[in-house]
Structures are given as structure tokens and as C-alpha cells.
Amino acid sequence: MTETLIEGHKPLAPPPGIPVLDIDPYDVDTLYTPHAYYEALRAAGPVAYIPRYQVLAVGRFDETKTTFSDHETFVSSRGIGLNDFKLEKPWRPPSIILEVDPPEHTRTRRVMSKALSPKVVRGLMDDFRNSAATILDGLLGREIEAVVDLAEAFPTAVFPRAVGMKDVHTRHLVDYGAIVFNAVGPDNVLRQRDMARAPEVAAWINAACARDRLTDDGLGALVYAAADAGDITEAEAGMLVRSFLSAGVDTTVTGIGNALWCFSQNPDQWEALKADPSLIRPAFEEVLRYTSPVHTFLRTADRDTEIGGHPVPEGTKVLCVLASANMDPEKWGDPEVFRVDRRPVGHMAFGAGIHGCVGQNIARGELEALLSVMIEKVDRIEPMGEAIWRPNNAIRALDKLPLKLIPS
Ligand code: OVM
Questions:
Q1: pLDDT mean over 106-113
Q2: Mean pLDDT of all residues in the chain?
Q3: Is the CB–ligand 1 distance for residue 100 below 6 Å?
Q4: Is residue 243 within 6 Å of ligand 1 at its C-beta?
Q5: How many A from CA of 246 to the centre of ligand 1?
Q6: What is the rounded CA–CA span in Å between residue 9 and residue 84?
Q7: 97 lines ligand 1 (CB under 6 A)
Q8: Residues 6+ apart with CB under 8 A from 159
């Protein structure tokens, strides 16, 4: 007899001894204002059982880090969402870097790591700074909707160019990320809405990854060069370019929007940044810690194991609530305070372990370029209305951010 699945994974009865947290982490209201849920999760214990989805969840810094980085026990190859790829067909062909384990992961990770190396990113910085300056010059002194006008405008100008895309469709590029991130959640309204538009957007994305749709001087060409060298196949090169487009647009759009929100809410911290440009990089790390663009990814226990001394059966899905780990007072002290000089080394916003964000250098490069131009040109970042968040099953992004950038 085949057992009925719940959200595409094996049912899990409340494991004896594990605290029960009767909360829906994917309820739209929780996604709007998640901090009470994070606090309840950390208070429950080192690990909690969530009956609504029959999963476990970790949100204390130590257990989140340990679980998330133990790739041998808590695998990625069964999907990093609620769906267990061993039991249910994924919505798209799995990513060959995100949704695989070693040894397959080792080979593809190496190719991506090389294509996104510090040296490659250094070569992109002039374009990043020039584009940031041009975009900002068009925005100074008037009321803007900063999500579209800046947070989306900047990465969608520079990143497709960095990849070497011949076809650019800004809306599809931004929406694809949101679709991929909603897909890792349960079959709720957010996922259903995005699955309905996924075929059209995914078809455009897949076509844009072909070798003949890429220039010979971008990140895409570096990946196809690895195919020419025999390190990966041509088809795998296309899949890795798809990973650029899955993980490289919506994430940086969100990081920039969240950064602008942090500074609009904390004008003293903007003053501190203008006074000391050496704080630009630490300030972005604090934005990441404070807002955790990727709030939750999951792992799957590939064998019977334990978390915090509690037994965990094979096939268990575990929510790793990165945003909660980044707000754990045991780790951070005054986590609710946004401080550009905190230097939050070891934050979980880029993940941890062998799957830690391979694009983090380019993400930091984009933010450094933008913030370094902004501290020259922008004296104050003034809110012009309420900031509104956009609920998503895996990413915490703004939907609306009305601002005025007062020129220096
Ligand atoms: C991918 C990928 C990698 C990292 C994050 C991500 C949606 C996707 O390889 O497709 O988020």
C-alpha cells in the first residue's frame, strides 16, 4: 500500500519529546509579519514539530547552522522545499547545483565558483558603478517607487549584461525568481498562483540559456567554456546558466530593496555610512542579517538521525529558518537593532556549508557599487509612505517602497 503524502513528503506523526509548534509558517499573515513566529520557534526548543505540514523546524542559530550545513545527513537532492523529489515529481527539472548532493554537486559547484570568482566580479565593478550612477541621476529629488525604480532597475540592468544575455525581458527575469522561491513552499495560494504562470515564464528563461542566446564574453560563456573543456556537458551548461537566472536576479533585487528600507527606517545609520565609506561592506552584511532575503529553505533527513538530542526519522523534512537564526538573541545580542558597524560575521543569509551562496561575491559587488555611488549622491533617504512587504514562501521582499532620495 502506498501511504498518502502530505505536501509531497512522507507523513510524520508528532515525534515523542519534540515540542509542538501549532503555527502555519506559510500563512500569508505570518509571511507579512514573521518575527513573532521566529520567536516562538526559538522558544519552543532546539527543534519543533509543525503539525500543519508534518515537518520539523529549526530556528535557533546553532541548530539551524548545524542542520543546514550537514549535507550528508540532511540532503538537498530530495528538494529544498516541502516536496520530496524521491516521492513526487518536481515542478521543473531539478537544479544541478542546488538540488544535488556530492559527488554530483562538487563538479557543478566548481564550474559556478570559477565563473563567479572574485577576479571575475572585479572585472564587472566598473559597469556596476557606472550603471548605478546613471540610474540614480534619473531618480534624485523626486518621489520614487524604489522597488521598481531602483531595486529592480539596477540588477536587471547589470546582471543580464554580466551573464551576456542577448534576450532581456525584465519582468520575466524578476518573476522567475519569485516563482522558484514560491515553489519550495506548500501548495498554498502563493504557490498556486505562481505555478499557473510558471510555464510561460520558465519557457522564456530556458530558451534564454542556450549557447547561441549568449555573448562570448560573459558569465554564461565561462560556463559553456567548461563544457568545451569537457568538465560538464553542453546540456549541463544550459542548466547552470538557468541557475544564474533562478538565483541571481530576484535575490539581489530583494537585497537592494531591503537595504533601502533599512536605511529609510534608520537615518542615523545612513549618516554613519556617509561618514565612513569603509562601512559599506559591513553595512550590507547587516542588511542581510537583519532582513534575511531568503528566510527559509528546507533539507530532508536521508537516514534516521537526531537534532538537539531528539530522534529524527528518515524522510523528515526540516524547515531551516535562516531569518530566525539571524535574529537569535543568544547569538547576536540586540538582534532587533540595525547597526552598520555590527560586522555580523557568520550570519546565515547566504546559507552555510557546501551549498552556501556561490554568487555572494557578485551580490556584494552589486551592493558595494550601488551604496558607494549613493553615499556620494544621496544626502537623505526619506520615506514617502508605508513600506509594504510581498509575501513569498522563501523570500522576504518588498512590494512597495515609496521614497525620496534627497541629493547631496
Ligand atoms: C538554482 C538555484 C540556486 C540557488 C537558489 C535558488 C531559487 C535557485 O540553481 O536554480 O533559488
A1: 98
A2: 98
A3: no
A4: yes
A5: 5
A6: 5
A7: yes
A8: 248, 249, 252, 362, 366
Residue 1: predicted pLDDT: 45
Radius of gyration for the alpha carbons in the chain, expressed in angstroms and rounded: 21
| Mean pLDDT in residue range 334-362 | 98
Side-chain-side CA neighbours of residue 148 (13 Å): 6
pLDDT of residue 52: 98
What is the arithmetic mean of pLDDT over 133-139?
A: 98
Spatial contact of 180 and 201, defined as CB atoms under 8 Å apart: no
Residue 403 Cα to ligand 1 middle (Å): 30
Specify the CATH number of the domain 28-407. 1.10.630.10
| Whether residue 292 has its Cβ less than 6 Å from ligand 1 | no
The three-state secondary structure class of 297 is strand
Q: Which grid coordinates belong to 134?
A: 546613471
Instruction: Determine the longest span between alpha carbons in the chain, in angstroms.
Output: 70
Give me the residue spans of the domains in the chain: 28-407
pLDDT of 407 reads 98
Q: Identify the pLDDT of residue 2.
A: 57
Closest CA to 250 of 81, 393, 107: 393
Ligand 1 contact, 247 CB (< 6 A): yes
Q: What value does the mean pLDDT take over residues 224-242? A: 98
> What is the number of other CB atoms lying within 10 angstroms of the CB of residue 272?
15
- Closest by CA to 386, choosing from 34, 30, 32, 25, is 32
Angle at 23 between CA 86 and CA 401, to 5 degrees: 95
